[in-house]
């Protein structure tokens, strides 16, 4: 039996892109019912830990440029889901937090997403998570080495 040709990077990119777009579409369907965008959901998910996060860290975590994040957070503030405070240790920096209303909203939409998210076979979720984390670490390592 002949060995299959090695997978090309474009094959992996095609699969990753397709999976990301299908997942985003599935997630957005649930979020639309609550008037929440995917970017807002990402911000709320990060802030749900109750720690408060610097705006620069939020921008990086949710893959948005800082000006776009500022507009999004302004919108979340207007909805009374998020508030911003000056960091008491570094008055030049701003921390973002969920309001009590934001916490309730996050718990509700998070529950709805979990209930409607497709479940793979036993152990596959963790296997996929582990493989994706390894891929990210490998790509980050390769990026760091090429930057030297």
UniProtKB/TrEMBL annotation:
<dbReference type="InterPro" id="IPR036390">
    <property type="entry name" value="WH_DNA-bd_sf"/>
</dbReference>
<feature type="domain" description="HTH marR-type">
    <location>
        <begin position="9"/>
        <end position="137"/>
    </location>
</feature>
<dbReference type="Pfam" id="PF12802">
    <property type="entry name" value="MarR_2"/>
</dbReference>
<dbReference type="InterPro" id="IPR000835">
    <property type="entry name" value="HTH_MarR-typ"/>
</dbReference>
<keyword id="KW-0805">Transcription regulation</keyword>
<keyword id="KW-0804">Transcription</keyword>
<protein>
    <submittedName>
        <fullName>MarR family transcriptional regulator</fullName>
    </submittedName>
</protein>
<keyword id="KW-0238">DNA-binding</keyword>
<dbReference type="InterPro" id="IPR039422">
    <property type="entry name" value="MarR/SlyA-like"/>
</dbReference>
<dbReference type="InterPro" id="IPR036388">
    <property type="entry name" value="WH-like_DNA-bd_sf"/>
</dbReference>
């Amino acid at each position: 039996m002949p060995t299959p040709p090695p997978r090309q990077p474009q094959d992996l990119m095609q699969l990753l892109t397709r999976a990301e777009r299908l997942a985003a579409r599935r997630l957005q369907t649930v979020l639309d019912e609550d008037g929440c965008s995917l970017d807002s959901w990402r911000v709320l998910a990060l802030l749900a830990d109750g720690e408060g996060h610097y705006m620069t860290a939020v921008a990086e975590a949710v893959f948005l440029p800082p000006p776009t994040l500022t507009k999004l957070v302004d919108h979340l503030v207007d909805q009374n889901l998020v508030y911003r405070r000056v960091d008491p240790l570094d008055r030049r920096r701003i921390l973002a937090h969920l309001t009590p209303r934001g916490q309730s909203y996050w718990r509700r939409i998070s529950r709805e997403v979990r209930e409607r998210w497709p479940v793979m076979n036993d152990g596959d979720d963790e296997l996929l998570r582990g493989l994706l984390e390894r891929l990210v670490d490998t790509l980050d390592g390769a990026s760091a080495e090429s930057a030297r």
